[in-house]
Amino acid sequence: MNRLPRISLARVRAASLAALVVFCGGCPTNPIKVRDAILEVNETFRVQYESILAQQGTRVFPVRPDKALPGVRAALFQLGMHMESQDLGLGYLSFASPAPRPLNMQEWGQVAQADLPMMREIAARHVGLVPSWFISFEPEGLEIVLNATVLPAAAGSEISLTMRMRQVTPPPSGIPRREYAPPTGVRMGLDKIWGQIERELGVKSHSP
Amino acid sequence: MTDPSYPDALPAQHRLHWYVLERVLGQGGFGITYLARDTNLDQQVAIKEYLPVDVATRRPDASVRSRTEDQGERYRWGLDRFIREARTLARFDHPNIVRVLSVFEHNNTAYMVMRFEEGENLAALLERRRTLPEDELMRIVLPILDGLELVHNAGFIHRDIKPDNIHIRADGSPVLLDFGSARHSMGHARTVTILVAPGYAPFEQYYSSGENQGPWTDLYSLGATCYRAISGISPMDAITRSKGILGSTREILVPAVTIGSGRYSAGLLKAIDRALAFSEKERPQSIAEWRRELADAAAPVPRAAPATMSVTPATAPGPLAPNPAPAPAPPIRGPVIWATLGAVVAAVVVVAVLLWQQSPRPPTIDPAFTKLQDDYKRSEEARRKLEEQRKKEADDAATRQLGDKQKHEADLRAKAEQEKKLADERARRELEAKKNADAAKAQRDAEAKKKADTGRTEAPALVVVAPPAPPAAPPKAAEPDLIKQAEEARKRGNDAESLALLRKAADQGNAKAQFALGDMFSAGRGVPQSNFQSYVWFARAARAGHADAKARQDQVKATLQPAEIQHAEKLLR
């Protein structure tokens, strides 16, 4: 009689722990906490995005705007993005594509490796450690939207880019949308785009 | 001489073997279509030239070359697909499918020779008549379905069905044109979306990944064409639909059952809505399925000549499924996680049951578990309520949108009447002024005659001349005229023309036109929705003195990133 409860207790403890982990991971989390977590992720990413954009968001190319505009368009087509809107008179182009384009899945993997821990850390502050492990870093349901503006500059054309995420499917229960792309993704995306535009125009660019 | 509207086109009278080009019929992103004369058979033909402007250009020797060496491979690949598809299309012999007569290579590119069909395209017909009655619409749609079924059965998807590509022959029979052969021949890294027809292309077509495209893709376009024919307006483009109102993704397309209620049979309207379902899985999956829905709906409608079709067996089958571009990997993580969780939960349950059976203590339910269960129930309930609320909001929005549209149309009608009255008044005044001027002239002539007759010099007589009529139009007549024309174009459903006219007026500094552009971009009406462009135009209108523009500018500003605002302001300088 004494032996059985000892074994049972050990099993109960182990089973309870497993059940707790499983249940906490899968159980519905308080929407307000999820909302706060996403808001903080958005805000953190926004601050980093703006800092990256200040350094890498604008380049000057030694070509006239009328050459630069088709170059930008062709470069982004090459990267698998489709044009949503353009106003050549204004010097404005807008592109979109399902995430992770312009990055490929391998590059997205690198972004996840770099930025997912930060996202989890932020989320854990709001929803707890275990649910934060289940944060999705999948690109499904997200689009990347890029705006490009081309202005005449003394040395040619000044091209500026902005990048945002667009959630195609509505988030559940009024949860805010994720708007800013992960910082590593922004950095890698900008590098890739500038490189492609340079190749397309056949010139090197420099910071303004 | 080259047509100035088509700088890349070959000049008239250019000879391609025994075909002599007469004029350009149209140009798309992947090619130019010419009207030509077959000098052997002495008949007119349509010839489509492969010229993908993004990757290739015309040389002075008339040849077509890729723009850069890097693009050469893609150009060549697209060219091969163009030729292969022309050969496959030539196998179709159906009265409602354009007949491909030949294909040949020349000028480092390829040319597809097609039968030239006299008549009028459906777009022009709808422009003229705005809407079509149900029986007439069915006389167009059902034969097209027959032809399209043949195409689908052979493994093809048209991918560019729209009123412009449906030709109505003089006898009223329709023919489906432009199989956009090269449209999906670029594949690989580039997307096909720059060539989709906004409003007529479903969401899945905006991306190069083609695995979720099929007969339902063409059915969406046919549904959209029917929507245009019953409502007089094109449905909003799928991208705008995906964004929804103010960033939400709820449905914002006014359904056909609402817009055509009372004028068309409920069954037809329902079938159109089914074809226009946003998600491809919710649409009919085959022509046969949709035809059944239409047949259920429609009163007996005379069908066109039975489809005497034949397909020559292909020696090498050439299904033209697009080559999908690298797409995000399928979401396997979720199922794996849940499968693992399921297994763990099952194991835990089994262990718990075993332990419970062995335990001498009575079983108890953990209060924390009960609380979690309650929380879950509450959460589910809240989710259900929110779903209901969202649905209700979507319905309200649709009703509002319809109401707005009707109000807008009423405004336009009232405005047109007012303008007509003004024009009549102007004409009346001009006539009066002319009469007065004529009377004054007659009086002057009489005085002069009298002077000549008497031979005496007298003090000039006082000639009473009626005051000149007010100017026929204000000095800034050109700009309001452009806006008026833009409104008329919009009323006709010609958004492109309306946009061009407004843009012209806006570039001349007309604040009203600038405001209208801001409004169009904000709502995505006739243009792809763009808060950035909306901001720019509202800002310009505000600077030009438009009273309401500043408030709208601020409203849109709230949706933009600081960097986007900064870039927009740079453009405004």
Quick rundown:
Chain A is α+β, with helices and mostly antiparallel strands.
Explained architecture:
The complex is a heterodimer of chains A (208) and B (573). Helix content of chain A is 53%, strand content 20%. With 208 residues, chain A is an alpha+beta fold. Chain A has a five-stranded antiparallel β-sheet with strand order 1-5-4-3-2. In chain A, a hairpin with a 4-residue loop joins β2 (82-87) and β3 (92-98). The termini of chain A are far apart. Chain B has 573 residues and is α+β, with helices and mostly antiparallel strands. Chain B has three domains: 1-116, Phosphorylase Kinase, domain 1 (2-Layer Sandwich); 118-309, Transferase(Phosphotransferase) domain 1 (Transferase(Phosphotransferase), domain 1, Orthogonal Bundle); 477-573, Tetratricopeptide repeat domain (Serine Threonine Protein Phosphatase 5, Tetratricopeptide repeat). Chain B has 16 helices and 13 strands. Chain B has helices at 69-89, 122-129, 134-153, 215-231, 238-243, 256-259, 266-275, 287-297, 333-358, 367-454, 478-491, 495-507, 511-523, 531-543, 549-557, 562-572; strands at residues 15-16, 19-28, 31-38, 43-50, 56-58, 64-66, 92-93, 100-106, 109-115, 120-121, 166-168, 174-176, 310-311. In chain B, the strands form four sheets. Chain B has a six-stranded antiparallel β-sheet, covered by helices on one side. Chain B has a three-stranded antiparallel β-sheet with strand order 10-11-12. Chain B is globular and about 85 Å long.
Shape of chain A: elongated
Shape of chain B: globular
Q: Helices and strands of chain A: which structural class?
A: alpha+beta
For the sheet with most strands of chain B, the description reads: 6 strands, antiparallel
Q: What is the name of the CATH architecture of the largest domain in chain B?
A: Orthogonal Bundle
What average pLDDT do the residues of chain B reach?
73
Number of domains of chain A: 1
Please report the total strand number of chain B as a whole number: 13
Helix content of chain B: 40-55%
Cα distance spanning the termini of chain B: 41 Å
Could you give the order of the helices and strands of chain B?
EEEEEEHEEEEHHEEHHHHHEHHHHHHHH
Q: How many H/I helices of chain A?
A: 6
The first-to-last residue Cα distance of chain A is 82 Å
| CATH fold-level label of chain A | Alpha-D-Glucose-1,6-Bisphosphate, Chain A, domain 4
Helix content of chain A: 40-55%
Task: Tell me the CATH superfamily of the largest domain in chain B.
Answer: Transferase(Phosphotransferase) domain 1
The domain tally of chain B reads 3
Sheet with the most strands of chain A? 5 strands, antiparallel
The CATH class of chain A is Alpha Beta
Oligomeric form: heterodimer
